Amino acid sequence: MYYSxxxxxxxxxxxxxxxxxxxxxxxxxxxxxxxxxxxxSTKYKVVSKITAGASSPRMREFTFDVPQLGNNNTYQVSINxxxxxxxxxxxxxxxxxxxxxxxxxxxxxxxxxxxxxxxSKFNFNEVDMFIKDPTIDVPAEKFKxxxxxxxxxxxxxxxxxxxxxxxxxxxxxxxxxxKILLDVASGKYETDITPYDIxxxxxxxxxxxxxxxxxxxxxxxxxxxxxxxxxxxESTIANSIKSYFLGNLAMLNMVxxxxxxxxxxxxxxxxxxxxxxxxxxxxxxxxxxYLDGILDPIRTSESVNxxxxxxEISLACNFGANTAITIKVFDKDFxxxxxxxxxYHNSAILSYDNINYRTKTLKLNKEGKYKYVKRxxxxxxxxxxxxxxxxxxSSMLSASTALxxxxxxxxxxxxxxxxxxxxxxxxxxxxxxxxxxxxYSDKLHDNTSNIKSSITGKVVDINAAGDKVKVEVAEGEYExxxxxxxxxxxxxxxxxxxxxxxVGDTISEGDVVFHLNSFKGNELAMxxxxxxxxxxxxxxxxxxxxxMSQSAAKxxxxxxxxxxxxxxxxxxxILDPVYLxxxxxxxxxxxxxxxxYEQGVPPYEATAHILDRKELVFxxxxxxxxxxxxxxxxxxxxxxxxxxxDTTTEDYTKMKSWQDESLKSDREFYSNxxxxxxxxxxxxxxxxxxEISITYYNQFKLSDKITNRASNKGLVVTIAPDEEFPMTQDxxxxxxILPALAGASRKNTYTVLECKLTKLSExxxxxxxxxxxxxxxSIVDFMYQEVPEDLRTAEYLLANKSVENFxxxxxDPFDTEVDDxxxxxxxxxxxxxxxxxxxxxxxxxxxxxxxxxxxGYNEYMRLHFIAExxxxxxxxxxxxxxxxxxxxxxxxxxQKFGEMETHALMAHGAEGYISEISMKDNKKDARLRSAxxxxxxxxxxxxxxxx
Length: 947
Prior knowledge:
Layout: H1 6-14, E1 16-20, E2 23-37, E3 41-52, E4 58-67, H2 74-77, E5 80-86, E6 89-92, E7 98-102, E8 106-109, E9 114-117, E10 120-122, H3 124-132, H4 144-148, H5 153-163, H6 175-185, E11 196-201, H7 203-213, H8 215-229, H9 235-247, H10 249-252, H11 263-269, E12 272-277, E13 295-300, E14 310-313, E15 317-319, E16 325-330, E17 336-340, H12 341-346, E18 349-350, E19 355-356, E20 361-362, E21 370-374, E22 377-381, E23 389-390, H13 412-424, E24 436-437, E25 451-452, E26 457-462, E27 468-474, E28 477-482, E29 486-488, E30 494-499, E31 506-507, E32 512-516, E33 519-520, E34 523-524, E35 528-533, E36 545-549, H14 550-555, E37 558-569, E38 573-575, E39 587-588, E40 593-601, H15 605-611, E41 617-624, E42 629-641, H16 650-662, H17 664-669, E43 686-698, E44 705-708, E45 714-720, E46 736-737, H18 740-745, H19 749-769, H20 777-783, H21 794-800, E47 802-803, E48 806-807, E49 809-810, H22 820-829, E50 837-841, E51 848-862, H23 867-870, H24 881-885, H25 899-907, H26 911-918, H27 923-940
Parallel strand pairs: 5-12, 18-23, 24-49, 35-46, 36-45
Antiparallel strand pairs: 1-2, 2-3, 3-4, 5-11, 6-7, 7-8, 8-9, 9-10, 12-14, 13-14, 15-16, 16-17, 18-21, 19-20, 21-22, 25-32, 26-27, 26-31, 27-28, 29-30, 30-32, 33-34, 35-51, 36-46, 37-43, 38-40, 39-42, 40-41, 42-43, 44-45, 44-51, 47-48, 50-51
Helix pairs in contact: 19-22, 26-27
């Protein structure tokens, strides 16, 4: 008997009858119920009636916990764990030659004269003779096992991949099948990596299998305790559950939750997989060519040691019931179709080389052939007759690579890194939908990070804080959809939920009601276009260090939400009436005091004893904005008044007035003039509890990290005034200086191509906006092939294909139409000379810089590596060489101090400390001294020199 739920199993386990000296002791379980559930565990309660011999029955209750991994459906939210079985396993000699092979229930070794079928053993020669000539006079019963044996379907599929055959019989008595088995067992295909059989591991199902397999042992324990003590105990099931999770600790350690940096990361978590050897639970390589189409070939772990160990599954790949795998393809009419993995492997799939995805048309490749893949091998053909499906782009993409245009133009190592940077990006002030985007960017809105409606109705109101939506589900009947506004991530940042609906909208079940502020409209928007010049700025840049203008840095400010909870304990506060009027919508300066009062604290014990003082000492408490905050606004104010407070005092009158003012919008929202939130019972020792939420921007500063979309990741080493940056001839100020050598050394072709494309985009916008679209008709027709010809009008394109002052281009990851040569041709047609290079004007001197320089917009992302979260240095803390240099990995010599660490200390006002420590003459301080000196010299460099 298999029990399919924890409740059923627990009821079975503790319903028992055991013989004792006084008769039978009986446990009759009345109920097993789930009483609570958190991200960490689910608690179950067992209620049973215990009868001991002839005594009266009594009730027994106990609870036990089952660990949870994210939520009840860990399969969806955590990294998937792939348990690997080798469908075909090769055995080799000491000199590495193949001497045999196992095929799940069948082992063949011609050189050792052995064949094992299940537990039956045979000599190889006699089996070989029998299969090749069944008329041989041998005892029929001896070979019945051979005649009845059938190869498993998984083995058949593996053999098809290995030998590239359309059909293989599952009977080993079939001569063709037997020959294939002998070829593999004798090493004919030894150069091919053995295909894997992948099974997905579900922790909750695994626990139930474990308990079911242990049920006899567990029942014996229940009988024993029931016999001895006429009772049942939670330890029986609790210990078994604990042993299961401890036994699977290796896999538990690999689980990641979806509460991550941004929605893209959250989506990718459900498309990620670890591969483990099911026996040793060790990670195994998965770079088999036979996994083509299952695993994305680009998005892997950033660590070199983990490449091909942990992979994201491609967007086209889905796991259904019982881990059935399907992959998305196009049929010959370009309809999307999901087909089983076996059919995918065994069908001829036309390569992306021959497909124009924008126009949904086919073309010959550069060799004048059609290229297709079948059973993970590539072939060329002159005809489409044998082609069954067309390759879907998403079968080569993970969630994190789907947003990267022209990845086939980049160095693949940089693409791999950029895939990680995409998931490390945080939402910023100046972010907008990408100018150069892919067709996938508007498909990410429907993902697990968004809050969806469970009801149907009309939106009639949204509260002032933006975290509750009022929906009319029937005439005069209302329901509310709400969310926690702030999502804290594991990377020191937070995301903020904002409404995706407006008053008057009709919503249905499943519609997105709240989305994270990473979206603009229905599109993921994490990038900021900044005017970039491939040049230098008086030597202030470094190898991977950016020089950025102050206005550009403001665009990269990260929105955060600060929640204050001020508890005014009875008799231990003195209010300052000046601060009892802050309200939602108020703007705050960086140095503003948000709230201030005097708090009573006991005097120092020794002083109190000498002076015989027992009264409180009152000290002023000021609440201010965090360091590096900018552009703060009060989001919400909530005043809680204890019902037991004295209502005759002046404090109460002022607090009540403040509460009424703060509740105006809520009372209108709930249509209840008497609405007052319930006072929190846990603060019964307080007269008042004040909650203030403030939205502000965390400034972009030295040592914070950014990257462009071609993985030019680096630190910002200088943030300089705008006027120090060069200007273009038409008066635009350069915002970022990207050292040319940094781009060249990292082979980031797209860095250059994006600058050219955005320059083209901006020029096209100006021409189309001026009503002269016909002068660039050939460019429009090429760049907007996906748009029907009758819609390629100025009105349509400006309304649907523009953002800010740019025309938007859709260029997919494996676009085969756009390359550098074509872009240069389009630039010339648009009237942009010299392949986008132009003469700049030096900022401080106003002189023309004679060498033409490439200038264009790169789109940048701020990464979650934020300086103040990495170091805790403050001016008021004493440090020594030993304490600082010894932190980190505790290796000899301590933690390395480079630019980021030095900048982080400087960001916290610890310049004096760095100067002091850098004067000490020892090897451990040499790195710190060198880095600090390097930075200070750059900061002190004169900015008035000519370029």
